[in-house]
Prior knowledge:
CATH topology of the largest domain: Nucleotide Exchange Factor Grpe, Chain A, domain 2
Distance between the termini: 137 Å
Strand order of the largest sheet: 1-4-5
Helix content: 40-55%
Strand content: 15-25%
Radius of gyration: 47 Å
Number of helices: 4
Number of domains: 2
Amino acid sequence: MPEKEGIEIGTDAPPSEAELQAEPPESMNGDGQAPSEQAEPEANAEQLREELEAARQERDEMLAKLQRSQAEFENIRKRLQKEKDGVVRYAASDTIQSLLPIIDDFERAINAEGVPPEIKKGLELIHRRIFEVFSRAGLVEVDQHESFDPNLHFAVDRAPATEEQSDQQILEVYQKGYRFKDRLMRASMVKVAVKE
């Protein structure tokens, strides 16, 4: 193969194994490392341990923050779902409450004296149908217990109890009370017997 001008092709062969296993230079000690390099691994190992510990501590802090954030998010989600369910569940309550005076008027008209039977029958039919619609929505009449219950009744009048009457006995209901689903919408207005 002809040689190109200006380029030398070396005939040197790669070093033999014997040459490779020759004694290290004087700057190296018995293990093949320079004396300054021996101290470095120990210092590096200590530094790596410290960095590892710092990374673990940071990881633990971040994990705790993540868990708190997840718990807060879950609590907010549950609270919003509960509020949404409440809004949907009681959406009709304001409308029904505003229409309760109409129910009261029908009841007064039905119980009024001098109303012709045909008109009374028509009023009863309309009253019953309106109340059926309200009942399907969740309106229920408050039970008229024998005795006064401050959670269900509102005492607007009182009278001395006779021998046959007990203390706090309801004598008369002036206005019916209603519940809407599980909430009291309007307390019954009652007259109560009081023993003195």
